Amino acid sequence: MDLIAITMEPQATIRPSIKALLLVSLMGWVTSCGQGLVEREDSGATRQPSPNLQDRSGKISADRTFDQWLKQCQNLPSNRLLKGAMPERSLLPIQDPESLTQMLDLFIEQQLNGPLSQSEAWVRPLESKESFLNPSTAYFEKGGTPFMPFAMKLALPPDHRVMFHGDLHGDIHSLNTWLRHLNQEGVLEGFRIASSKDHMVFLGDYTDRGSYGVEVMYVLMRLKVENPDQVWMARGNHEDIQLTMNYGFLREATAKYGPAFPIKRFSRLYDFLPVVIYVGSVDDFVQCNHGGVEPGYDPEGLLRSSLSIAFDPLGKLEQKGFLNAHPQARALMSESGWSVAQANYADFKPLSPTVPKVIGFMWNDFSISREEPQLSVDPGRAFVYGHALTSLILDQGDPSGKKVRCVFRAHQHSSVSNPMMRRIIQSGGVFRHWQERATPNARETPESVKGLSLEKERERVLVDGAVYTFNVSPDSYYGAGNQYDFDAFGRLLLKARFEDWKLQVNQLKVQP
Fold first, then answer.
1. Regarding predicted confidence, which is higher, 58 or 378?
2. Distance CA 452, CA 177 (A)
3. Torsion angle, CA of 135/165/195/157, rounded to 10 degrees?
4. What pTM did the predictor assign?
5. What is the tens place of the pLDDT at every residue in 210-262?
6. Which of 32, 96, 118, 174 has the fewest Cβ atoms surrounding its Cβ within 10 A?
7. Is the peptide bond before 356 cis (omega within 30 degrees of 0)?
8. Is residue 49 within 8 Å of 117, Cβ to Cβ?
9. Can you count the helices (H) and strands (E) in the chain?
């Protein structure tokens, strides 16, 4: 079976012929609605924002403080109440797209002048750096920017702290609740991070399936612009123009602002987000991404970089090359798993997030228990990996000592109660896979799952080779379908030794 998964849930697959039609429609939409784009500045790369960028960021901050933003959002009806409809225009905190466009300009300018623009920050050179840093073209245009997904390394001192958040899917109430909490803690001062030791990593899927994707993106861009070296956003499977056309964001933006909304520029924003971020300290790293593992990419060169912030283009993904280099993989799999790998693994260069194959960092999933297969296919979605094969893929790291210890991710959610969602909820919003040996019982209920011995503590010791799935925010059709009302985030406390790292899991009740 060929994997052509561009879908939110397995039952909703877009077929290749439909994808082509969507792209043709998008081209017409962009042509008729496109706005003038920010021009690239050729004044040279710098780690710090340009004075002009700083001046404009300060102006925006003065125009709309965090408290003012909360007040402007307080009367917005919840997603659960709207059920996919749009709020009254008079309630929108961003009444016209000018401030949104201005923030987008700042975000793009930051990328053009920040670490991404530094040749020495790339362990392998981009094939077309000038095209990559040109925001006036997009990969889906004929003759436009080639699709160039990349990985990132973020190496931090042992005493630093990193906060993680899962899918938002247009849920501005949960995002605002979290930021309000961090302001009360003193971690944030408005939109600015108070201490140089604190960092934020978002795990993808910021829009679609909710009515406030525009507002979520404004806040995330604002956080990034005001904290350029402390806020990072991974690219999820919904950071793809093909999905936003089908799952709500394009419809939302058009309903709110019509042709004035800069959809083409937003598509370029996605291209500046890494598909995986290796976050760590000294010799140990956590693989942070939206989906799952990608056996076709070896992070050794990236992890060995002497820079604290470094990048690496994915280039050609060599999945068959992984099998050839790791003959022990066959012994780990059942015959069915080996057949899946032989039929579906390929060596390919991604032309988009889903063509010719899906990128595992954005799309793949993981099994729940140890007895489940090491490799299977969720039809219409992507691969599902087991614990032993996952450990083998993570062990690809630098043989000189750099090691990928575990995975922080999101993505594997459902709008109906299923074994995965029950375990995420019972784990307080962050579930560690493979705690159980037996495959989940098909007759289990939310009540019966309460009796399982799952990690529920606020502070947890990380397990080498484990995968941690972060929950989706609650003011969503996921929260409505699974009847939970708490948002969850993790705070990773780094130390010199991996054995001393701690993950604090926090829940916040969301009341829109």
1. 378
2. 30
3. -90
4. 0.90
5. 999 999 999 999 999 999 999 999 999 999 998 999 999 999 999 999 999 98
6. 32
7. yes
8. no
9. 20, 20
